[in-house]
Amino acid sequence: MSSPTLSRRSLLAAGGATAATLALMNKSFPSFAAPLQQGDELIPWLDQPGENPVPEQVTNMLDWQNLDSWTTPPEQFFTVSHYGVPEVDLSDWQLEITGAVDSPMTLTMDDLLSWPRLELDFTLECSGNHGFGWNWGLIGNAAWGGVPLAPLLREAGVKDDAVEVAFYGADVGDETIREVTFEQNFARSMSIEDATNPFNMLCYEMNGEALPTRHGYPLRLIAPGWYGIGNVKWLTKIEVRTRRLMNRWMARDYVTLRQEEVDGETVWTESSVGKALLKSAPARVVSSDDGYRIEGAAWGQPIGSVEVKIDDGDWMKATLDAENVRRFTWRFWSLDWADAEPGEHTITVRAIDSEGNIQPAADSEYMMSKVTYWESNGQITRSVEIPA
Ligand SMILES: Nc1nc2c(c(=O)[nH]1)N[C@H]1C(S)=C(S)[C@@H](COP(=O)(O)O)O[C@H]1N2
Ligand SMILES: [Mo]
Fold this sequence. Notes:
Helix content is 10%, strand content 38%. The chain is built from seven helices and 23 strands. The strands form six sheets. A five-stranded antiparallel beta sheet has the order 1-16-17-21-20, with no helix packed on it. It has a five-stranded mixed beta sheet with strand order 5-4-13-8-9. Strands 6, 7, 10, 11 and 12 form a five-stranded antiparallel beta sheet that branches. 39% of the residues are buried. Bound molecules: the ligand Nc1nc2c(c(=O)[nH]1)N[C@H]1C(S)=C(S)[C@@H](COP(=O)(O)O)O[C@H]1N2 and molybdenum atom. Residues 78-83, 124, 126, 169, 171, 186, 215-216, 228-229, 231-234 line the site of the ligand Nc1nc2c(c(=O)[nH]1)N[C@H]1C(S)=C(S)[C@@H](COP(=O)(O)O)O[C@H]1N2.
């Protein structure tokens, strides 16, 4: 479903459009960073993702093997919608900012458009994305446009006894606690400090167009640096709270369960899925006139370098794409594999962040201590067969 485009005139009339934002608006989308060059041929992975078992909740996954644009094409930008996709009518939609604030606010889209505009590139990834079974492609990169959240919260006036900010979507589902079943809107919360991060955005545009319905039309939270779950779609209410929200999405689902050794004792810890972790993936192997090449992406934290290991060989430094470098996006990389020998090979990748932290091995103690599959940022290995 496409949604009506916000008129350019209403954006301009809003008065928030400076020369700089106009320049951003005029930017053309999408930008193609690493298309297959003429003569390149894809060598398909031997290990292919399984079939999506929840097509009513998860759609449009990224096709890694054909990854050729830094900005994800709309039809390959994944969606996760746990309570279905609500159709919101802009004429009776508004956003409430309520709870522990001095001046509660009710805002229409026109009101929001009168606030200064922010645009940023952010690679959104579901914390369930990894490479187990079927869920490989729950990641996408887009340019998001909207209103910074912090000034709105400042205008509403967060009270001193507030501890967090909760974001509610228009989508509802049934939840059950101790045999009581009740209707609940999708919601997630974050601390006041996290919520007032200057990059958080009430987002109404994706790649220069109105947010598509399935991505949260007319308004969603974009929280750069957070896993997908924190980026609440179809926003209707922002509630400043004095007590912590403990709903399914904060406290019962999207919970990372770990078994840790603390002072010689085994301790189980459960924590709510949070900020994005350092990660990378091989996208594909191609052959060209000059031999084979491995291409992929790294994301989650500022990327310092990327290394690739073939079979049990040494780590080799990949070349980072110099063109598309942003704080909150994936970074493309490639490695020439000149001496590829015919036969089966495994390819493992690891990202190293700008502070020297290394993405953990899939079989490291740290990854093995994790029981649930959320926030799995272990190194990914895939296999190919180089033809004779
Ligand atoms: N209102 C609402 N927001 C939501 C969700 C949802 O089910 N309802 N799913 C979350 C999850 S788990 C993810 S991974 C991202 C996915 O965003 P996308 O569908 O725009 O790719 O949205 C998040 N925001
Ligand atoms: Mo997710």
